[in-house]
């Protein structure tokens, strides 16, 4: 029984201890940082039946019960003394641990609660922030839309202003163009009036001159006829007298015996007068025929003769029947043999051949001619090509040089009109080649141009105003910049003649070696062969293509003319040698000194330019 009571006592004391601890613990919890209410600890085990009544029952009115403490201390002493003390303390410890774990769990729960709260708050903030952003972006979009509209509006206004400006500009340009056109028309009208005036004056002058000429001619003719008549009558009388004397002498000597009869005959004055009259009539007939022929000849010459400005032409000077004209050769153009003596870069040569062929066919196609301008360094073949084109185009051609116009003075205008009037007579169309064009067709404002020259240029402009189906102009110059703008405006094809390249220089050397030293002049007639002193034959030895190519490389910068002259110098050097042999050494010597000469010339030219 005692054995059974002891554990019961121990349990009671443990319970009491626990209650004390719990009451102590309650104080500790109140001090802790957590403010939540502690869960009531598990209800203490029921007190043993013999256990003293709870301390609360015996507590004083102040609420503090010192007995309880004593009881607790006693219980602790009992526990301490009990063999279950260890177990009890273990129990208490695990109880405490459980409580701590619960508290930790509660703390975690609390933390989670706050975290959730926090997250909720953040989510709210996020939402608010998103809402703000949304509103801001809406405001921004609205602002952008507004700005865009503003920009569009201002752009539209700008465009409108620009359109208005453009329209104004166009209007002003139109007014300007109208004014220019009016000025041009006025100038043309003026030129036309001037031309008309000139023509009228010329016609009047011509009429007056013709009248005066006719009167003076008639007077002169009458005078001359009178003189001639007198003279012839005198001569005739003298002749008749001589005859008479002769006859008289003959009659006297031969027929003295019939003196009486003859005297009767010779004294028959009516017969004598009849004889004289017959001879006079014969002389007058001869005179009239001769004068008539002279006047007709002058008329034909005036109407159809070649103007004096033309230096060379395919049209005959006097179109008398039976005389054959100098025919331009057109066959060579189609046969491809044209320009065989002209060395140019292949592309340039092709263009020129093409143009020559097109010019030759223009008339047959009833198309307007295309005027041409050749320009480039001196001696590069402009004149040569223009001549060749003129001769081979199948048209009639006429060549004049610009330098011939200035010396004519006031007559130049008339001469220019003469050329165009004359050129119109050509059935095939006329190629008018004006060499050294800058001398005649230079800028009208230039100070060194005389009034007469200006009028001549105006006359040419007047006659070439429209695209012509009768005349094609080919101008050659080495100063294209000096030409009057109105002239360049009339040009359809502009061709530059550059200095020859190495291959062209080689071909030029070959061409002139052949022309000056290898070719026999077989065109000369037997008569000229007989009459002319024949040149010595040149023997060409070892002049290879390589040697010529080497020379071509060295003579960089030479023009076609310089190369032709170089080969002429080689020819002269060969004729100067005793054996008339051209060998590489002689050739190279001439080439070397010609190069030195060229360089010297270039130096002088650059010094002069500086
Ligand atoms: N491309 C060429 N092919 C063959 N020979 C040429 C060539 N260029 C020039 N020559 C020779 O030079 C000479 C002079 O040429 P041309 O009179 O045609 O020169 P240009 O260009 O009219 O010179 P400029 O401007 O001084 O009047 C010709 O007669 C010819 O012998
Ligand atoms: Mg020339």
Automatic annotation (TrEMBL):
GO terms for cellular component: mitochondrion. InterPro entries: AAA+_ATPase (IPR003593), ATAD3_N (IPR021911), ATPase_AAA_core (IPR003959), ATPase_AAA_CS (IPR003960), P-loop_NTPase (IPR027417). Residues 41-52 have a biased composition (Pro residues). One of its GO terms (biological process) is mitochondrion organization. The lineage of its organism: Eukaryota, Viridiplantae, Streptophyta, Embryophyta, Tracheophyta. The keyword ATP-binding applies. Belongs to the AAA ATPase family. Residues 116-159 form a coiled coil. GO terms for molecular function: ATP binding; ATP hydrolysis activity. Residues 38-67 are annotated as: Disordered. Residues 368-501 form the AAA+ ATPase domain. Keywords: ATP-binding, Coiled coil, Nucleotide-binding. The keyword Plastid does not apply. This is AAA+ ATPase domain-containing protein. It comes from the Eukaryota. Pfam families: AAA, ATAD3_N.
């Amino acid at each position: 029984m005692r054995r059974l009571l002891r554990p019961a006592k121990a349990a009671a004391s443990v319970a009491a201890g626990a209650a004390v601890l719990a009451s102590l613990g309650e104080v500790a919890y109140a001090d802790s940082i957590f403010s939540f209410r502690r869960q009531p600890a598990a209800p203490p085990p029921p007190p043993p039946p013999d256990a003293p009544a709870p301390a609360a029952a015996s507590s004083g009115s102040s609420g503090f019960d010192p007995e309880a403490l004593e009881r607790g201390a006693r219980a602790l002493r009992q526990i301490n003394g009990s063999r279950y003390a260890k177990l009890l303390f273990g129990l208490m410890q695990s109880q405490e641990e459980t409580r701590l774990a619960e508290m930790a769990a509660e703390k975690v729960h609390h933390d989670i609660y706050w975290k959730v709260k926090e997250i909720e708050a953040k989510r709210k903030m996020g939402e608010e922030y998103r809402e703000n952003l949304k509103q801001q972006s809406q405001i921004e979009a609205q602002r952008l839309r507004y700005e865009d509209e503003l920009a569009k509006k201002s752009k539209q206004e700008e465009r409108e202003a620009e359109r208005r400006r453009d329209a104004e500009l166009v209007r002003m340009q139109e007014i300007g163009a109208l004014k220019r056109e009016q000025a041009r028309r006025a100038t043309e009208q003026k030129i036309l009036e001037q031309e008309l005036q000139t023509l009228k004056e010329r016609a009047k002058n011509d009429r007056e001159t013709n009248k005066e000429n006719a009167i003076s001619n008639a007077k002169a003719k009458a005078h001359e006829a009178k003189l001639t008549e007198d003279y012839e009558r005198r001569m005739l009388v003298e002749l008749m007298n001589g005859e008479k004397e002769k006859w008289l002498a003959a009659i006297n000597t031969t027929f003295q015996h019939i003196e009486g009869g003859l005297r009767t005959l010779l004294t028959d004055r009516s017969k004598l007068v009849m004889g004289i009259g017959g001879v006079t009539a014969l002389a007058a007939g001869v005179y009239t025929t001769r004068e008539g022929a002279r006047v007709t000849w002058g008329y034909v010459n005036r109407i159809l003769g070649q103007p004096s400005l033309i230096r060379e032409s395919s049209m005959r000077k006097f179109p008398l029947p039976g005389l054959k004209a100098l025919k331009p050769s057109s066959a060579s153009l189609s046969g491809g043999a044209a320009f065989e003596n002209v060395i140019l870069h292949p592309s340039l040569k092709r263009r020129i051949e093409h143009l020559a062929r097109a010019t030759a066919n223009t008339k047959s196609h009833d198309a307007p001619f295309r005027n041409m301008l050749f320009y480039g360094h001196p001696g590069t073949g402009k004149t040569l090509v223009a001549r060749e084109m003129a001769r081979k185009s199948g048209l009639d051609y006429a060549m004049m040089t610009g330098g011939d116009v200035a010396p004519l003075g006031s007559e130049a205008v008339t001469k220019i009109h003469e050329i165009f009037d004359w050129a119109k007579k050509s059935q095939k169309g006329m190629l008018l080649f004006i060499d050294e064009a800058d001398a005649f067709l230079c800028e009208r404002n230039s100070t060194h141009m005389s009034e007469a020259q200006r009028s001549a240029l105006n006359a040419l402009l007047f006659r070439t105003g429209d695209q012509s189906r009768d005349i094609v102009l080919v101008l050659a110059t080495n100063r294209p910049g000096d030409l009057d703008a109105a002239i360049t405006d009339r040009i359809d094809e502009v061709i530059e003649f550059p200095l020859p390249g190495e291959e062209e220089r080689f071909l030029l050397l070959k061409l002139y070696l052949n022309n000056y030293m290898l070719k026999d002049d077989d065109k000369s007639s037997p008569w000229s062969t007989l009459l002319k002193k024949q040149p010595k034959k040149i023997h060409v030895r070892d002049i290879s293509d390589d040697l010529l190519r080497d020379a071509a490389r060295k003579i960089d910068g030479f023009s076609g003319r310089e190369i032709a002259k170089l080969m002429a110098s080689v020819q002269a050097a060969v004729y100067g040698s005793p054996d008339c042999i051209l060998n590489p050494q002689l050739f190279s010597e001439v080439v070397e000194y010609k190069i030195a000469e060229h360089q010297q010339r270039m130096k002088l030219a650059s010094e002069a330019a500086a």
